[in-house]
Amino acid sequence: MTATPRSAPPAGLAHAVIATGLGDADQLRAWRERPEQLAALGLDPTSIDLDSLANFAGLAEKIRHNQCRDDLPLTFRLLLLTGLEIELFREYVPHSLARRRQGLKLVQDRLDGLLGFVEGWAPGTDPMRCLVRDMLRHEHAIAILRCAVVVPAAVDPGEPARTAVPRHRGHLVVHRMRHDPRQVASVLRDRDPDLGRIEQGGWTFCYHRSPEGALRLLDMRQEVGDILLAIDGRSSVEAIATGIFGNAALADQLVAVLEQLTQCGLLEWQPSEGTASCD
User: Are 92 and 84 within 8 A, CB to CB?
Assistant: First the structure.
Protein backbone atom coordinates (compact mmCIF):
# COMPACT_ATOMS: atom_id res chain seq x y z
CA MET A 1 0.00 0.00 0.00
CA THR A 2 1.32 3.43 -0.92
CA ALA A 3 1.35 5.93 1.91
CA THR A 4 -0.52 9.12 1.33
CA PRO A 5 1.95 11.99 1.45
CA ARG A 6 1.33 14.53 4.17
CA SER A 7 0.02 17.76 2.77
CA ALA A 8 2.03 20.87 3.44
CA PRO A 9 0.40 23.52 5.63
CA PRO A 10 -0.84 26.69 4.00
CA ALA A 11 2.22 28.91 3.59
CA GLY A 12 0.60 31.97 5.11
CA LEU A 13 -0.59 30.10 8.20
CA ALA A 14 2.75 28.36 8.68
CA HIS A 15 4.62 31.65 8.39
CA ALA A 16 2.28 33.27 10.89
CA VAL A 17 2.82 30.45 13.40
CA ILE A 18 6.62 30.65 12.99
CA ALA A 19 6.62 34.44 13.37
CA THR A 20 4.41 34.20 16.46
CA GLY A 21 6.60 31.49 17.98
CA LEU A 22 9.75 33.57 17.52
CA GLY A 23 8.16 36.72 18.90
CA ASP A 24 6.04 35.28 21.71
CA ALA A 25 8.01 32.90 23.91
CA ASP A 26 5.00 32.11 26.10
CA GLN A 27 2.90 31.07 23.09
CA LEU A 28 5.71 28.92 21.72
CA ARG A 29 6.03 27.18 25.06
CA ALA A 30 2.26 26.61 25.14
CA TRP A 31 2.34 25.04 21.66
CA ARG A 32 5.26 22.80 22.65
CA GLU A 33 3.42 21.62 25.75
CA ARG A 34 0.05 21.23 23.94
CA PRO A 35 0.70 20.90 20.19
CA GLU A 36 -2.97 20.07 19.65
CA GLN A 37 -3.61 23.80 19.99
CA LEU A 38 -2.16 24.15 16.50
CA ALA A 39 -4.93 21.91 15.16
CA ALA A 40 -7.47 24.44 16.40
CA LEU A 41 -5.76 26.94 14.11
CA GLY A 42 -6.14 24.59 11.16
CA LEU A 43 -2.53 23.45 11.20
CA ASP A 44 -1.30 19.86 11.47
CA PRO A 45 0.84 19.79 14.68
CA THR A 46 3.31 17.44 12.96
CA SER A 47 3.89 19.84 10.09
CA ILE A 48 6.08 22.22 12.15
CA ASP A 49 9.11 21.21 14.20
CA LEU A 50 8.45 23.19 17.37
CA ASP A 51 11.67 22.03 19.04
CA SER A 52 13.75 23.36 16.15
CA LEU A 53 11.76 26.58 16.28
CA ALA A 54 12.56 26.87 20.00
CA ASN A 55 16.25 26.27 19.26
CA PHE A 56 16.18 29.01 16.64
CA ALA A 57 14.55 31.35 19.17
CA GLY A 58 17.38 30.47 21.57
CA LEU A 59 19.95 31.29 18.90
CA ALA A 60 18.28 34.65 18.33
CA GLU A 61 18.35 35.28 22.09
CA LYS A 62 22.05 34.43 22.25
CA ILE A 63 22.75 36.91 19.45
CA ARG A 64 20.68 39.50 21.29
CA HIS A 65 23.13 39.13 24.20
CA ASN A 66 26.23 39.76 22.07
CA GLN A 67 26.48 43.11 23.88
CA CYS A 68 27.38 41.15 27.01
CA ARG A 69 30.32 39.29 25.47
CA ASP A 70 32.87 41.95 26.42
CA ASP A 71 31.88 41.52 30.07
CA LEU A 72 31.35 37.74 29.96
CA PRO A 73 34.04 36.39 27.61
CA LEU A 74 34.88 33.30 29.66
CA THR A 75 31.24 32.51 30.41
CA PHE A 76 30.42 32.49 26.69
CA ARG A 77 33.52 30.38 25.98
CA LEU A 78 32.43 27.91 28.63
CA LEU A 79 28.90 27.74 27.22
CA LEU A 80 30.37 26.91 23.81
CA LEU A 81 32.73 24.25 25.16
CA THR A 82 30.00 22.55 27.23
CA GLY A 83 27.42 22.71 24.42
CA LEU A 84 24.97 24.48 26.73
CA GLU A 85 24.64 27.82 24.95
CA ILE A 86 21.51 27.10 22.88
CA GLU A 87 19.91 25.15 25.72
CA LEU A 88 20.45 28.03 28.14
CA PHE A 89 19.22 30.79 25.85
CA ARG A 90 16.28 28.70 24.60
CA GLU A 91 15.02 28.35 28.16
CA TYR A 92 15.83 31.98 28.95
CA VAL A 93 13.75 33.40 26.07
CA PRO A 94 10.44 33.93 27.96
CA HIS A 95 12.21 35.49 30.95
CA SER A 96 14.24 37.81 28.74
CA LEU A 97 11.13 38.82 26.81
CA ALA A 98 9.34 39.72 30.04
CA ARG A 99 12.27 41.89 31.13
CA ARG A 100 12.43 43.68 27.78
CA ARG A 101 8.73 44.45 28.06
CA GLN A 102 9.55 46.12 31.38
CA GLY A 103 12.08 48.32 29.59
CA LEU A 104 15.12 46.47 30.97
CA LYS A 105 17.26 46.64 27.83
CA LEU A 106 20.59 48.14 28.90
CA VAL A 107 23.71 45.96 29.03
CA GLN A 108 23.64 45.96 32.84
CA ASP A 109 19.96 44.93 32.72
CA ARG A 110 20.86 42.01 30.45
CA LEU A 111 23.73 40.99 32.73
CA ASP A 112 21.49 41.09 35.79
CA GLY A 113 18.68 39.22 34.07
CA LEU A 114 20.95 36.47 32.80
CA LEU A 115 22.53 35.91 36.22
CA GLY A 116 19.14 35.92 37.95
CA PHE A 117 17.89 33.24 35.56
CA VAL A 118 21.02 31.07 35.74
CA GLU A 119 20.87 31.03 39.55
CA GLY A 120 17.70 28.94 39.22
CA TRP A 121 18.70 27.19 35.98
CA ALA A 122 21.75 25.53 37.57
CA PRO A 123 20.59 22.85 40.04
CA GLY A 124 23.11 21.46 42.46
CA THR A 125 22.91 18.07 40.75
CA ASP A 126 24.21 19.34 37.39
CA PRO A 127 28.00 19.96 37.55
CA MET A 128 28.28 21.64 34.13
CA ARG A 129 25.46 24.08 34.80
CA CYS A 130 26.95 24.89 38.21
CA LEU A 131 30.28 25.56 36.51
CA VAL A 132 28.60 28.01 34.12
CA ARG A 133 26.80 29.64 37.06
CA ASP A 134 30.01 30.16 39.02
CA MET A 135 31.83 31.70 36.06
CA LEU A 136 28.87 33.96 35.35
CA ARG A 137 28.75 35.05 38.99
CA HIS A 138 32.45 35.92 38.82
CA GLU A 139 32.35 37.91 35.60
CA HIS A 140 29.05 39.59 36.49
CA ALA A 141 30.41 40.83 39.83
CA ILE A 142 33.51 42.28 38.18
CA ALA A 143 31.48 43.93 35.41
CA ILE A 144 28.98 45.52 37.81
CA LEU A 145 31.59 46.74 40.30
CA ARG A 146 33.82 48.09 37.55
CA CYS A 147 31.03 50.45 36.50
CA ALA A 148 29.79 51.27 40.01
CA VAL A 149 30.02 54.84 41.24
CA VAL A 150 31.44 54.83 44.75
CA VAL A 151 31.10 58.02 46.80
CA PRO A 152 32.94 58.24 50.13
CA ALA A 153 30.50 58.57 53.02
CA ALA A 154 30.76 61.79 55.03
CA VAL A 155 29.78 60.32 58.41
CA ASP A 156 31.33 60.19 61.84
CA PRO A 157 32.73 56.67 62.17
CA GLY A 158 31.85 56.61 65.84
CA GLU A 159 33.24 54.13 68.34
CA PRO A 160 32.89 50.45 67.41
CA ALA A 161 30.61 48.97 70.05
CA ARG A 162 27.68 46.62 70.51
CA THR A 163 25.17 49.31 69.52
CA ALA A 164 27.16 50.67 66.57
CA VAL A 165 26.08 49.97 63.00
CA PRO A 166 28.63 48.60 60.54
CA ARG A 167 28.18 48.93 56.80
CA HIS A 168 30.05 47.95 53.67
CA ARG A 169 32.71 50.42 52.62
CA GLY A 170 32.10 51.08 48.95
CA HIS A 171 30.43 48.25 47.02
CA LEU A 172 30.76 44.62 48.00
CA VAL A 173 29.49 41.33 46.55
CA VAL A 174 29.88 37.92 48.22
CA HIS A 175 29.51 34.64 46.31
CA ARG A 176 29.86 31.06 47.45
CA MET A 177 31.30 28.90 44.68
CA ARG A 178 31.94 25.27 43.88
CA HIS A 179 34.82 26.36 41.67
CA ASP A 180 37.68 28.83 41.92
CA PRO A 181 37.04 31.18 38.96
CA ARG A 182 40.75 32.01 38.79
CA GLN A 183 41.61 28.37 38.15
CA VAL A 184 38.69 27.99 35.72
CA ALA A 185 39.89 31.07 33.83
CA SER A 186 43.37 29.57 33.57
CA VAL A 187 41.93 26.40 32.01
CA LEU A 188 39.64 28.29 29.61
CA ARG A 189 42.50 30.43 28.31
CA ASP A 190 44.36 27.34 27.10
CA ARG A 191 44.48 26.82 23.35
CA ASP A 192 42.68 23.49 23.77
CA PRO A 193 40.89 23.67 27.16
CA ASP A 194 40.56 20.44 29.13
CA LEU A 195 37.50 20.92 31.31
CA GLY A 196 38.48 17.80 33.23
CA ARG A 197 41.27 19.82 34.85
CA ILE A 198 38.79 22.14 36.55
CA GLU A 199 38.83 21.61 40.32
CA GLN A 200 35.74 21.36 42.49
CA GLY A 201 35.37 22.19 46.15
CA GLY A 202 33.99 25.05 48.20
CA TRP A 203 35.05 28.70 48.08
CA THR A 204 33.73 32.01 49.35
CA PHE A 205 34.79 35.08 47.39
CA CYS A 206 34.34 38.75 48.19
CA TYR A 207 34.39 41.22 45.30
CA HIS A 208 35.08 44.71 46.64
CA ARG A 209 35.19 48.15 45.07
CA SER A 210 36.51 50.74 47.52
CA PRO A 211 35.87 54.50 47.49
CA GLU A 212 39.45 54.89 46.25
CA GLY A 213 38.43 53.03 43.10
CA ALA A 214 40.35 49.81 43.70
CA LEU A 215 38.65 46.56 42.66
CA ARG A 216 39.83 43.42 44.40
CA LEU A 217 38.91 39.75 44.76
CA LEU A 218 39.33 38.20 48.20
CA ASP A 219 39.24 34.48 49.00
CA MET A 220 37.85 34.13 52.52
CA ARG A 221 36.38 31.70 55.01
CA GLN A 222 32.67 30.98 54.71
CA GLU A 223 32.00 32.34 58.20
CA VAL A 224 33.44 35.73 57.24
CA GLY A 225 31.27 35.74 54.14
CA ASP A 226 28.23 35.04 56.32
CA ILE A 227 29.04 38.08 58.45
CA LEU A 228 29.49 40.35 55.44
CA LEU A 229 26.19 39.16 53.97
CA ALA A 230 24.41 39.89 57.26
CA ILE A 231 25.51 43.54 57.27
CA ASP A 232 22.79 45.73 55.77
CA GLY A 233 23.84 49.20 56.97
CA ARG A 234 20.90 49.42 59.37
CA SER A 235 21.39 46.64 61.92
CA SER A 236 23.53 47.07 65.04
CA VAL A 237 26.22 44.60 66.04
CA GLU A 238 23.85 43.16 68.65
CA ALA A 239 21.16 42.58 66.01
CA ILE A 240 23.67 40.96 63.66
CA ALA A 241 24.99 38.69 66.41
CA THR A 242 21.42 37.64 67.22
CA GLY A 243 20.66 36.95 63.56
CA ILE A 244 23.82 34.91 62.90
CA PHE A 245 24.45 33.20 66.23
CA GLY A 246 21.05 33.50 67.90
CA ASN A 247 22.77 35.16 70.86
CA ALA A 248 23.24 38.90 71.38
CA ALA A 249 25.78 38.11 74.12
CA LEU A 250 28.31 37.33 71.38
CA ALA A 251 28.20 40.92 70.15
CA ASP A 252 31.49 41.84 71.89
CA GLN A 253 33.34 39.05 70.09
CA LEU A 254 31.70 40.08 66.83
CA VAL A 255 32.88 43.67 67.32
CA ALA A 256 36.48 42.41 67.33
CA VAL A 257 35.93 40.58 64.03
CA LEU A 258 34.26 43.60 62.47
CA GLU A 259 37.14 45.84 63.53
CA GLN A 260 39.54 43.54 61.66
CA LEU A 261 37.34 43.77 58.56
CA THR A 262 37.34 47.55 58.99
CA GLN A 263 41.14 47.54 59.04
CA CYS A 264 41.03 45.52 55.79
CA GLY A 265 38.98 48.34 54.25
CA LEU A 266 35.81 46.29 53.80
CA LEU A 267 33.68 48.01 56.45
CA GLU A 268 33.09 51.39 58.04
CA TRP A 269 31.12 52.41 61.11
CA GLN A 270 28.39 54.90 61.82
CA PRO A 271 26.44 55.75 64.97
CA SER A 272 23.26 53.74 65.44
CA GLU A 273 21.17 56.96 65.57
CA GLY A 274 20.11 58.47 62.25
CA THR A 275 21.69 55.82 60.11
CA ALA A 276 21.17 55.60 56.38
CA SER A 277 20.86 52.44 54.35
CA CYS A 278 24.07 51.10 52.86
CA ASP A 279 25.01 51.74 49.28
Answer: no
pLDDT band at 4 (very low <50, low <70, confident <90, very high): very low
What average pLDDT does range 3-8 have in this prediction?
Answer: 48
- Enumerate helices (H) and strands (E) in the chain, giving the number of each: 12, 5
Question: What is the average pLDDT value for the chain, to the nearest integer?
Answer: 85
User: Which own/partner contact pairs does 254-258 have at CB distance under 8 Å and 24+ positions apart?
Assistant: 254/227, 255/160, 255/161, 255/162, 255/164, 257/224, 257/227, 258/160, 258/166, 258/227
**Is residue 267 packed enough to be buried (19+ CB in 10 Å), middle (13-18) or exposed (0-12)?**
buried
- Across the range 63-85, mean pLDDT stands at 95
Note the pLDDT of residue 159: 63
Q: Which candidate, 236, 68, 268, places its Cα nearest to that of 153? A: 268
Select from 151, 164, 123 the least CA-distant residue to 275.
164
Residue 179 buriedness (CB in 10 A; 0-12 / 13-18 / 19+) = buried
Contact assessment for residue 220 and residue 180, using Cβ atoms and an 8 Å cutoff: no
> The pTM is what?
0.81
* DSSP conformational letter for 250: G
Cα separations (Å) of 23 from 19, 20, 190, 235, 271? 6, 5, 38, 46, 53
**Which residues fall within 8 angstroms of residue 214, CB to CB, at 6 or more apart?**
none
70 strand-pairing partners? none
User: Are the CB atoms for 220 and 204 separated by under 8 Å?
Assistant: yes
**Closest by Cα among 146, 147, 141, 131 to 75:** 131
Contact in structure between 237 and 274 (CB atoms under 8 Å):
no
CA 12 to chain centre: 40
What is the average pLDDT across 52-77?
89
